[in-house]
Amino acid sequence: MKTILGGFAVLVVLSQVAWAADGAAVFEKKCKMCHSIAGVGGPMAKNGGPLDAVGAKGEAYIKEYVKDPKSKKADSKMPKANLSDEDLGAVVSYLMGLKK
Ligand code: HEC
User: Fold this and answer.
1) At the topology level of CATH, where does 2-98 sit?
2) Which one, 17, 42, 82, 85, has the greatest CB density within 10 A?
3) Alpha carbons 63 and 43: distance in angstroms, whole number
C-alpha cells in the first residue's frame, strides 16, 4: 500500500514538473526571439523587451495580449502568436510564475 501511494506521489510531482516546463518550452520556441527573461533573449529581444515582471499586469491581460496584441494596445508591434489554447495557458502560467 505504501509503495502504491509513494508511486502516485512521484507521478503527481513529475507531471507538474513536465507541465511547468511546457510554458518555458513555449517561451523558448515562440517568444524568446523577441523577448528576454532573466536577461537572456533572442536576436530581437530588444524589440519585445524583458517579460520577467509582466505577470504584474495580470493573467487576463497577458492572455488577451498574446492572443491578439492589438486588442490591448492598438499600435502594438507584436504579431499575433498563433498558439493552441494549451500552449497559451502554459506560457501565461509560466510568465505569471516569474513575478516575485
Ligand atoms: C516578432 C516578435 C515578437 C514575438 C515572436 C513575441 N512578441 Fe511579445 N512583444 C513584441 C513587441 C515588439 C512588444 C511590444 C509591443 C509594442 O508596445 O508595440 C511585445 C509585447 C508583449 C507583451 C506586453 C508587455 C507589456 O508590458 O504590456 C507581452 C505580455 C508579450 N509581448 C508576450 C509575448 C509572448 C508570451 C510571446 C510568445 C507566445 C511573444 N510575446 C512573442 C514582440 C514579439
Assistant:
1) Immunoglobulin-like (2.60.40)
2) 42
3) 24
Residue pair 53/99 in contact by the 8 Å Cβ criterion: yes
Side chain identity, residue 38: A
pLDDT band at 48 (very low <50, low <70, confident <90, very high): very high
Q: What are the backbone dihedrals phi and psi of residue 44, each rounded to the nearest 5 degrees, phi first?
A: -110, 25
Rounded-to-integer distance, Cα 80 and Cα 18, Å: 26
62 in Cβ contact with 92 (< 8 Å) = yes
Question: How many whole angstroms from 26 Cα to the centroid of ligand 1?
Answer: 13
Say if CB 24 and CB 96 are below 8 A apart. no
Give the mutation target among 27, 28, 34 for probing the ligand 1 site: most ligand atoms within 8 A of CB: 34
Is 98's C-beta closer than 6 angstroms to any atom of ligand 1? no
Alpha helices in 1-100 (DSSP H): 2-26, 45-48, 59-67, 69-72, 85-98
pLDDT score for 94: 96
